[in-house]
Structures are given as C-alpha cells and as structure tokens.
Amino acid sequence: MSETLAMGWRQYRLERRMFWRNPTAAFFNFLFPLIVLGLFGALFANDQTTLNRIVPGIAAMSVMTTTFNALAHNLVFLREEGVLKRMRGTPLPPGAYLGALAANAITNTILQVAIIATAGRLFFGIPWPRDALELLVFVAVGVVCFASLGVALSHAIPNFESAPAYVNAVFLPTIFISGVFYDVKHTPAFLRNIAEALPLKHLIDGLSGAMVSGRGLGSNLTALAVIGLWAVAGVALAVRGFSWESKRA
C-alpha cells in the first residue's frame, strides 16, 4: 500500500508539471472563470443581490469545469492516443495512475474555488465563507459528482476531435439553465423544473449558503441529496463503461 501511494504521489507531481506546461488548460481552468466573474461583476457592480448569486454560481461552474470538462477531455485523449493502454502495461498500479489524474483535477478545483472566493471578497462585497463545513462538504460532493459524470461522458465520446462538441453540448446548456449568472426563480417554470433536476443548480445553492447566507448545512440537505444521487449514478456509469482500449482498436 505504501509503495502504491508513493508511486501515485510521483505520478501526481508529474501531472501537475504537465498541467502547468499546457497554457490552454491553465487558461480555461483558472483565467476563464475569473474573466467571466470580472465581466459580470462589472455589469452588476451596483446590484449586490445579483452579485451574491453570481459569485457562488461561478464557483460552482469552476467545480464543473475543473472536473467534468477536464476529465472528459483528458480521458478521451489518453484513451484514443493509447496512453491508457500503455500505462496499464507498466509497473505503475492502475489505481495509482487514475488516482493521480483525479487528484490533479481535485487540486485545480480547490485552487479555483479559493481564487473565486478571494476575488469575491476583495472586489464584489462577498464575505469570507460563513460556513466552512458546508463549503467543504458541497465542494467535495460536487467534485465526486462532476468528476464521475465527466468520466462517464468520456465513454460516449468516439474520438478526441469530437470531445469539445460533446462536452460543450452538456456544459453550456447546463450553466445557463442552472442559474450560474442569475437566480432561476426568475425563469419560466419549465426551465426551473429542468434546473431542479440538474446537480449544478443545487451545488450553486449549497455554495451560496456557505459563502453568503451562512444558514448552515441543514438548510440545504435536499440540494446535497440531489447531488449525491447524481454522484451515485455517475460513479456507476463511470465504472461500468471504463475502457483502457481505444475505440478505434
């Protein structure tokens, strides 16, 4: 076990170095959410109520981009380029390798949420998170949920060239329907119903409670349950459809 952990740690450090050597990945993981936050923050600079929704919304979107989007793209690339197949034939245990990939995504999530929370405090009048436990719980459950769904989606993507289309076909409608940039209470009933069925809206609610209202974890148990159900479904689909082999093999 200790040897597996040591090998996983070395692989994790390698994944971090590879991430920072990829400017495109660094941009979309860190700079893009900040640019979006800056634009919407400027538009609603005099509307604190809206800012109180937008900052947790973009934090939730960051959880999705650093897990769902990143893992869906990366696993398709690694699978179709034969990297997964070759890695399986090395002495590195599969659990250590996949764990390092997951830990890399989790690290990006933690950094991004911290950056968004800091920017919200410094520039947009959002207090420091009022409930640290609620923040940690929702970020953790959100990571499991969206990471597993990203892995599950990667099974349906036939090649790396089509990965952006598949991922954005899920990501873009989700962030607009779920109320990343506005309160879903102001949308038509059918859109509210769709948002209530999706995990991102409930992650926004949980992060909003932790970062703005501070009502406590007990006030968002329904949101936590919905995200948990999606996480269970995502894990089941991710495990069931996982393949080390290229679809073109």
Q: Which key terms come to mind for this protein?
A:
249 residues; mainly alpha; 10 helices; 78% helix
Structure, described:
This protein has about 250 residues and is mostly helical. The chain has one domain (about 1-240). The protein has helices at about 1-20, 25-45, 50-80, 85-90, 95-125, 130-155, 165-175, 190-195, 200-215, 220-240. The longest helix has about 35 residues, at about 50-80. The chain is globular and about 55 Å long. The two termini are about 35 Å apart. About 45% of the residues are buried.
The overall pLDDT, averaged over residues, is: 88
User: pLDDT below 50 for ≥5 consecutive residues: which ranges?
Assistant: none
Q: Quick one: biggest sheet?
A: none
Structural class: mainly alpha
The share of residues in helices is over 70%
Q: What's the number of structural domains?
A: 1
Beta content: under 5%
* Cα radius of gyration in angstroms: 18 Å
- Total strands: the figure is 0
Describe the global form.
globular
Q: Number of helix segments?
A: 10
Question: How far apart are the termini?
Answer: 33 Å
Brief overview:
The chain has 249 residues and is mainly α. Helix content is 78%, strand content 0%. The protein has one domain (2-241).
List the helices and strands and how they pair.
Elements: H1 2-20, H2 23-43, H3 48-80, H4 83-88, H5 94-123, H6 132-156, H7 163-177, H8 189-197, H9 199-213, H10 221-241
Helix pairs in contact: 1-5, 2-3, 2-5, 3-5, 3-6, 3-7, 3-9, 6-9, 6-10, 9-10
